[in-house]
């Protein structure tokens, strides 16, 4: 299962890199066009918004998988192993619940944006809002192995063995 999740996260980072490159290219095109030809492409800002939203959401989900997201644990490290494990379990369960709720509300939010249109490219705004439930889904799925590790007594933040709760 870890290999599958690794491949999914790698793919997300690859797509994020492509989106970053696309943002760079279209904005450079806009700069050159405006400077050299006194012509502006109106669609660049709308296209960039869609790309930025997807780039951030896909990258953040991959960060959850690789445990590269922001996690404040300086106080938790001062706790005894058993309490620290309990705290990590609670934090991970709350995070998982948050991602599930974000997925459900993200789907509803995206569904309400179908009829809204980006003015210059005439695309539905659902293209940008759909990134939110995708991010939430993958983040929730990526939290599952972390929860399993915690329940087995492993500390996913340090690789230090904790006492198993089973």
Write up this protein.
The protein is an all-alpha fold and 166 residues long. The protein has one domain. It is 70% helix and 0% strand. It is built from five helices and no strands. It has helices at 2-37, 43-66, 81-112, 126-129, 131-151. Helix 2 runs parallel beside helix 5 (131-151). It is elongated. It starts with a helix and ends in a 15-residue tail after the last helix. The mean pLDDT is 89.
Mean pLDDT: 89
Beta-strand percent range: under 5%
What are the segments in which pLDDT stays under 50 over at least 5 consecutive residues? none
Distance between the termini: 22 Å
DSSP summary, beta strand count: 0
The gross shape turns out to be elongated
How do the SSEs run, as a string of H and E? HHHHH
The class by helix and strand makeup works out as: mainly alpha
Q: Classify the oligomer.
A: single chain
Largest sheet: none
The level of helicity is: over 70%
Total number of domains? 1
Please compute the radius of gyration using only Cα atoms. 20 Å
**Count of DSSP helices?**
5
């Amino acid at each position: 299962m870890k290999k599958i999740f690794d491949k999914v996260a790698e793919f997300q980072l690859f797509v994020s890199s492509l989106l970053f490159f696309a943002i760079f290219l279209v904005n450079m095109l806009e700069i050159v066009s405006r400077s050299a030809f006194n012509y502006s492409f109106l669609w660049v800002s709308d296209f960039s918004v869609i790309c930025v939203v997807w780039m951030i959401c896909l990258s953040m989900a991959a960060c959850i998988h690789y445990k590269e997201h922001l996690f404040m644990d300086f106080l938790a490290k001062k706790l005894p192993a058993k309490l620290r494990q309990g705290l990590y379990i609670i934090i991970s369960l709350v995070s998982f619940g948050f991602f599930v709720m974000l997925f459900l509300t993200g789907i509803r939010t995206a569904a309400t944006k179908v009829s809204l249109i980006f003015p210059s490219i005439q695309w539905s705004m659902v293209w940008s809002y759909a990134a939110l439930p995708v991010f939430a889904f993958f983040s929730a799925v990526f939290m599952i192995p972390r929860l399993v590790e915690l329940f087995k007594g492993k500390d996913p933040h340090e690789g230090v063995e904790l006492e198993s709760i089973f």
